[in-house]
Write a structure and sequence with these properties.
- With about 210 residues, the protein is of the alpha/beta class.
- It has 2 domains: about 1-160, Response regulator (Rossmann fold); about 170-205.
- About 55% of the residues lie in helices and about 10% in strands.
- The protein contains 9 helices and 5 strands.
- It has helices spanning about 1-5, 20-30, 40-50, 85-95, 115-120, 135-140, 140-160, 170-180, 180-209, and strands at about 10-15, 35-40, 75-80, 105-110, 125-130.
- Strands 2-1-3-4-5 form a 5-stranded parallel beta sheet, sandwiched between helices.
- The longest helix has 28 residues, at about 180-209.
- It is elongated.
- Pfam families: Response_reg (PF00072).
Length: about 210
């Protein structure tokens, strides 16, 4: 649990080979990544919250359903797997509106240029040759950082779409309308106060004479 709390990025590793899966899991954990390892593309989709319509899985789900609490920052998958290949998994992820921005890296023990080009054209970030080494894992960090920058840009765009309502100008417009009414009232009261004071000395003067 300590590794999960300290990890900055969460990587989903997909490989049907137990040896290769343990190797990539150890390399990722040594690089302070949080790792979730599964042995098939269908289990990877299940963990990500996607369900397959084409394939029928009579077996109950074997992956914990707490994927909503654990956001996946990168997916690294083997190319040659039974049932669903890494290329098929890549296509399903890129076709999903909620998962298409997650970087995907393909691994393979065979160096086939046409296979590599297919994956890169479909949206894969990198194509690594097995056995994966620590230097290969270090190449994953730039792709993880790109994913975080995309999230920050989306948050900024959402903040710009909801500006605060302009209330200050309305208050400023009401103040000058009330100010000229005050001196008018004062002038009326002054004129009313002066008129009796001016008449009194006139009458008093006539009385003396």
């Amino acid at each position: 649990m300590g590794m999960a709390a300290e990890a900055q990025f969460h990587v989903l590793a997909v490989d049907d080979s137990l040896i290769d899966r343990k190797l990539i899991e150890r390399l990722l954990k040594n690089s302070s990544y949080q790792v979730t390892a599964v042995d098939s593309g269908s289990k990877a989709l299940e963990f990500l919250g996607l369900r397959e319509d084409d394939q029928t899985n009579p077996s109950p789900p074997s992956v914990p359903s707490n994927h909503h609490e654990m956001q996946v920052n990168l997916i690294i998958t083997d190319y040659c797997m039974p049932g669903m290949t890494g290329y098929d998994l890549l296509k399903k992820i890129k076709e999903s509106s909620s998962l298409k921005d997650i970087p995907v890296v393909i691994m393979s023990s065979e160096n086939v240029p046409s296979r590599i080009n297919r994956c890169l054209e479909e949206g894969a970030e990198e194509f690594l040759l097995k056995p994966v080494q620590l230097s290969d894992v270090n190449r994953l960090r730039p792709h993880l950082l790109k994913g975080k920058l995309r999230e920050q840009k989306l948050q900024q765009q959402q903040q710009q779409l909801s500006p605060p309502p302009p209330q200050l100008p309305q208050q400023q417009q009401l103040q000058p309308l009330q100010q000229p009414q005050q001196p008018n009232n004062k002038r009326k009261s002054i004129e009313e106060g002066l008129s009796p004071e001016r008449t009194r000395p006139r009458y008093s003067g006539l009385a003396v004479v």
